[in-house]
């Protein structure tokens, strides 16, 4: 061998040179220069540019925070040959966590796309965040993907954010594969994880593998379809999991393992037969004498049909950090997840969907999911949402923060473009305005033929694909530049961040003139503040975090208002009468003039000026003298609305969060006592191995700095997650305290 050192040692030294004392580490620079003679050299993204559509898999990885999504992604890239070394979240050197904030905190903040091939398949993969503050990142990724891998901590099963991302996948009808990660942890439990998937996700887990060993003794797994026994026996620090033993189970193997496999496989055959009629017919016909003799290929086809129909979810297991079970997961992705749910719009031959990010060198970078047609650089495109035409300058293939320029890309792929200045997340773009107009005419003609002309407008609007549903912010604070000369730079930075992140809202306070930053949580606003500093070189000052309350009313009130104003030589006279009442499902909806609607729905609450919700408004009458302008009509109705709200007994609504705390039993009483002081309401206390899982609801206003307090109460062992549950009326004492505080009386 070259250098006189065994290959395995050299390969390990490249990855571990900081801690290795072997003299081979001195050859690191020469090794990197000479790496190309190896068969397993790192691959180029140019190797596969336009594969056959049937070989493309567009998938996302989703999970609760710290379940191992990014580590799993890192192993996929390494085993597929696209990275030289295994990155580690704790070391801050993973491919998909490339932002400085991600590497410092060891969490995923922004979804990252990577493209690689596995065997003969192209996989476009998006690694999504697991923190609740960045749920929108998961939403905007899932809506353009065909399948998803849900990663679970095998010792915890379904966790709080797992439920959220699973609901998002359900909403978009995305087939999923479950990966029970961390099977090497002492508390890992296959049965517990499967039961939590059934009970909490209301899903039907289809177990395809069983582990060999448990906890630290976990060494491999058995594929129940092929009866392949896969074992990763490497124990040295240089082992990277690439090489593992794979063979068919033999009668001489461990009798307990054989019995467990037979029972699990028999149960799997019955389960798939119940879910797939074609497989059931095959069993009852050709293989009625021996179900176990069904070919693995037919078995896999049946599991694929069950997965695509979303009747069941394949479940696999492994340990990404210990380099076990990732290759079979890649095989499952290509075998069971969809090819491309061929979105085929009958009226459009070229259709693309967008997600936007910003790059400080290149400017706006637009990710595009190509649903039909082919895309080339220097092409003009028409944005249906913005009703405008733009030209893209370059077409790139994404690989986290590294990109490869390509000459064209066909349907089914995810591309990255440079040069689109007006396009934002969720827009639908096509090749030209003419093609969109022609498609609209065809859609309208088809609607008239099929359903009558009354529905033609709805039909033509279907040319625009569904956008992103953006949740309302729950936190806000003021943000100020260091000097007034930096105000324009701050506004530019906020505009760029808003285009990239639709969950960020920026407004100007009408009284103070301050810029107000509205976000999804403490971490969200903290990250935005840090990005403004690092990426735009602006040292901003943040005001104290405040909760985004809402307001409603408790009584019905009818009131009148008269506006009599002379402007120049014109006299404007308006008389309005309206009724406000607590909103109910049975309230009738009326069509209003646009000026009336604007007046009523842009009204601030009477107590603190927060947005009003849960109020039904009925305009009884509006008398307008000739020559009166619409602006005066709107002003009169707005004054009448505010007057009615002030008389209708205002009520503050506060955001109430669903809290999940995982804590050791010895610290449970301390955590419960603290929650009682925070106006928390305990809903349930569950057991999870040696820990307790506390489920509660608690007002968001009481959760400021909770992570620090919980760390102190539990000696750093407890974890928690928060998610907005609902807006609930404040109790009278808490409301009075809030009003006094806002008025500066306390």
Automatic annotation (TrEMBL):
Protein name, per record: Tr-type G domain-containing protein
Provenance organism: Pygocentrus nattereri
Gene Ontology biological-process entries: mitochondrial translation; ribosome disassembly
Pfam family, one: EFG_III
GO molecular function: GTP binding; GTPase activity
Domain annotation Tr-type G: ranges: 54-342
Catalytic activity: GTP + H2O = GDP + phosphate + H(+)
InterPro entries: EFG_II (IPR041095), EFG_III (IPR009022), EFG_III/V (IPR035647), EFG_V (IPR035649), EFG_V-like (IPR000640), EFTu-like_2 (IPR004161), G_TR_CS (IPR031157), P-loop_NTPase (IPR027417)
Cellular component annotations (GO), alphabetically ordered: mitochondrial matrix
PANTHER family xref list: RIBOSOME-RELEASING FACTOR 2, MITOCHONDRIAL, TRANSLATION ELONGATION FACTOR G-RELATED
Keywords: GTP-binding, Mitochondrion, Nucleotide-binding, Protein biosynthesis
Gene that specifies this protein: GFM2
